[in-house]
Write a structure and sequence with these properties.
Helix content: 40-55%
Largest sheet: 5 strands, mixed
Mean pLDDT: 85
Strand content: 5-15%
Shape: elongated
Strand order of the largest sheet: 18-19-17-16-20
Structural class: alpha+beta
Radius of gyration: 39 Å
Low-confidence stretches: 459-476, 739-749
Oligomer: single chain
Length: about 850
Amino acid sequence: MGTTTPPRTLAEALRARGDESLAGLLRARPDLLNPVPNDITQLATRAGTRASVVRALEHLDRFALQTAEALAVAPDPAPYDTLLSLLTGDGLDDGEQRDDAGAAVTAALPGALTTLREQALVWGEDDRLRLVRTARELLAPSPQHPSPTGLGPTVAEATAGMSPGRLQEILAATGLPATHDPVSAVAALSSLFTDRTRMAELLDTAPVEALSVLDRLVWGPPYGEVTPNPTPPVKWLRDRGLLLPVSTRTVVLPREAALHLRAGRAHRVPEPVPPAVAAAAERDPQAVDRAAAGQAFTALSTVEELLKLWNGGGPAILRAGGLSVRELKRAANALDVTEPIAAFWIELAYGAGLLAPDGETDERYAPTPASDEWLDLPAEDRWTHLATAWLAATRTPGLVGGQDAKGRALSTLGPELDRSAAPDVRRRVLALFAELPPGTAPDAETLLRRLRWERPLRGGPAASATGQGPAPTEGTDLRSRLALWTLNEAELLGITGRGALSAQVRALLAEGEKAAAARLAPLLPDPLDHVLLQADLTAVAPGPLERPLADTLSVLADVESKGGATVYRFTPGSVRRALDAGQAASDLHAFLAAHSRTPVPQPLSYLIDDVARRHGHLRIGAASAYVRCDDEAVLNEILADRRSTGLRLRRLAPTVLASQSDPGSLLEALRDMGYAPAAESADGDVLITRAGARRTPPRTPPVPVPEGPPVPDDTLLGAAVRAIRAGDTAATAVRKEPADAPSADAPSGSLPRTTPAETLATVQAAAMTGSPVWIGYVNADGAASQRVIAPVRVEGGFVTAYDHTADEVRTYPLHRITGVAELAEDGKG
């Protein structure tokens, strides 16, 4: 009485699970929830669809995948001992090393089977293990898609359609008794190949060259080409069924023979234990933190410089989207970095919501209003914002310069740079860093080997073969490429220092942004409120400057060099830029005196006064454009200058010249000629040019492209499991059929059919007794369903009831209920 019947289908196996186990399945495979299955049967059907199984296989580690691959070539169903033997071998060629590997496999196999069962890829008890049919089809061998194990088809599969006469010839060559029954012949040949003693005796008679042929095929691929007149070794193998024909020119090594040659192993090297990540170097943890903090400060400076570069309106957007190669080179030169690194900083600023298209007719990139808020934050908070955006971003700047599936170049900020696996790879790489002791830099090769073990099918050959992998132009190991890009980008951003994970990032991963900012803040230099003015018209900033000082100084002077200290150079053009922004000469003198720890050099004072004296002496307005000046001699000088010929100037009055050029072009041309004109408005007032006033409308950062459906939270999982259970109750509940039912042979799953009077009477009786009933219901769209409800109230042509299927109280119109039936007492659960 205590025994349970083994499940006959995947649906029965899932039905026997507890709620927590079902929730675990939905958590591991969230695609099964879209939409929520009506019942267990529908859940099992959806779990066996090709797309869902491919996605589940891609999330298996190498040993769980090897276990599934072994089941794909094992008999269906397979006992646990058979599966174990396929992974460890039959033990006849074991040495000490093989014994150790077998012990590791034996210890790891229960966990791998648990993983496969939890993800509904394997079901059944240990004596009857079954791989889901779709997974078996994906992993089983065929000429088009050889098995990952390198094994070919069985003797029965390879001889299907072979003539009885040919089978008799093979039996005779191998010394087996003749039989006219093809099934018996195939069974006899299979028995020979699986008998180690008789198989060894047969191979002892084989020519040496024939054994060499088998050695080339044994670990796969098992297929080979033959000529119409094969060589004697190949003919010897073919005559004895060790090579069976697939086509007129192709032969295959049958699975049973290959397993004998492999000593029973499905894989050359089982990998039950994840490879360890080796240490490349041991460094002082404090030195690592300081190096990472220094690079984090450089990252902030670079992003700020990029925002300033595009402050007045950045480059135009290509028609196909993204940044042109010329504009990327220009940004790389301005940031003094290589083009791939410039692409990384631009994509990072875009992903963090600091840059965006402005939405104008002539669309350009520009800083967003959020960039101003970001600049006002403390340095440590600015960095955590960038680091968090980088961790979550699916945009992959490492792809810039490559080609998409259609052969088109991938550009910075272009539409084809999203790779949904990127966030998972970044976090996994950092998690492996975090498992090492502080200050330890991992070896990159062992890190990649570990990642390949954890997700061997992600973007690999099997995914491509099933049509689910990345574009062919990306190769077959996108995950490894993402990991290498992660290592480089982490060092640029200050995630790592000298190749090791910093303490601030360990805090970011474990405790959040506030903890990371608190760790980073003491390591960043404090902003300064002063510079050192020098007699050669330069100013030296010995460290980072406070933002108001840095903003004003960047207008008044040009950055000449960067590093531990920033050198600014004052030029006539930079001083004029400050005057154009509304500053007066007296304001500039006061500013320099207030913020310099050294006396203001006399040459700098003279430069400011000289430029200010000439600034605004000429006035430019719209005529098309005009030039006016109180000094007629200056206008005469301009007219006499041969460089002004292209401006097509003519005198309107002693102090006014007119031009057919627009005011902006006229302004720039006269500045190039060495004058210092000022633009004026229609009212004659000097126009003040504010530096960096262009901003996009409010923009949200780009949304990462999810890798499949999001993982549901516990609340949603609980509700989904209750709905599936309730729907299953409705689908499998035992109903009492009315005594006058028209047919006792109604098809299973058909909706109940009763007259309106019978429906009303049964529902009213159920409302009085509080008992559940089974109903058929057709909604307003005509979709029919069956439900288990507990009626509470019946009035006005409606029944209000607790719907066990939806796990909530609902109201149903009586005229949409096709029929009603009581539940049998043993079917209420």
